């Protein structure tokens, strides 16, 4: 199958990132008064619904701005790069000053000034009731670490790195104790969830790079060892050896459960996790691990794709059917994740497709398998026909669609319009495409030389 030149794709990605996505967020998402970021926009980007600050998204936005500063080294002047580093510095200050509660955990939601809040059903801030806490999700802690580690790497700020390292150790001990929540994806008793080793893997390997960049080689080595442990757990316990898929939940005995919660697969999480593992494999120069990740990527895109309407389902059954199958014990019938699996499975989400674009390009750049490129262009055509806002003056995508691709205003995870997945995928993909452009040019030159020789 013929595909457009990678040079065209490179120009397209640069336009999408720097001409559409970033202008929206640099104009609308920076809190110039208090630091931190606004992310609670309507799905079409037209309205800021409220000014609450989910620490989950604060850490993510901080990562994007910090990585932009680093990625533009040698490509843009310092004044242009500082457009990203300066709000990143204010975001880092906001998080180090406000994110952690007295117990050392991170609050899930902060108000505009940084005070911990909870939200009622109407999205209005309220205080915690007696016995109720503000630390609703350990995922928020990991994203704070993720953002501050990247900021430290970009800026050389040791204070941010020390904060991130200490919070990581605190969070690791918290996981070992079992005293944590995982909102908005709570885990029922008797189950364990793929999301935790997945986020630990990526956070640990990224934090290791930050620690090494500031001279903490021993700390970096320990973090990389933890990343390896997480990758091993994912492939040993959560990955089905025959189907090559990764289950979202398994029993605490590390065995699959033949229930709805034990059978469902999130193709987007599988695809995203595979580039986490590919990064780890490349750092270890372990192409066997990279190849295994590619096998799992292939299974996820093939079984997760909607053959009728195009795009990836949010949830599928482990045998590829939709909606997810399996019995549901009475005690789990109203569990949040059971409700999500039964109601949200047909939704087409921006983040799933963003992650697939990068993962397929990364896999192809290293292994060169034709199926990877064919699938890339299939996903590319669907993604850019479906998610970008028809009003290009807005710039950002309409992130949540129904099965047929029509916009929806429902909340699937958090009530935020997160800048993270699109910007991160484009940022990571650009240097990969540059490498493919180089390979393409060398192939043309070789063909021309051969032609002249004949």
What do you see in this structure?
This protein is mainly α. 57% of the residues lie in helices and 5% in strands. It is built from 14 helices and ten strands. The chain has helices at residues 6-28, 55-71, 78-98, 138-155, 158-177, 195-213, 217-238, 260-263, 267-284, 287-304, 336-343, 350-367, 370-386, 420-453, and strands at residues 53-54, 109-110, 118-119, 125-126, 191-193, 249-251, 264-265, 316-317, 348-349, 400-401. The chain has a two-stranded antiparallel sheet with strand order 1-2. Strands 3-4 form a two-stranded antiparallel ribbon. The protein has a two-stranded antiparallel sheet with strand order 5-6. β3 and β4 (125-126) form a beta hairpin. α3 runs antiparallel to α4 (138-155). The longest helix is centred in the C-terminal third of the chain and has 34 residues, at 420-453.
Summarize the structure.
The chain has 454 residues and is mainly alpha-helical. Helices cover 57% and strands 5% of the residues. A two-stranded antiparallel sheet has the order 1-2. The chain has a two-stranded antiparallel ribbon with strand order 3-4. It has a two-stranded antiparallel sheet with strand order 5-6.
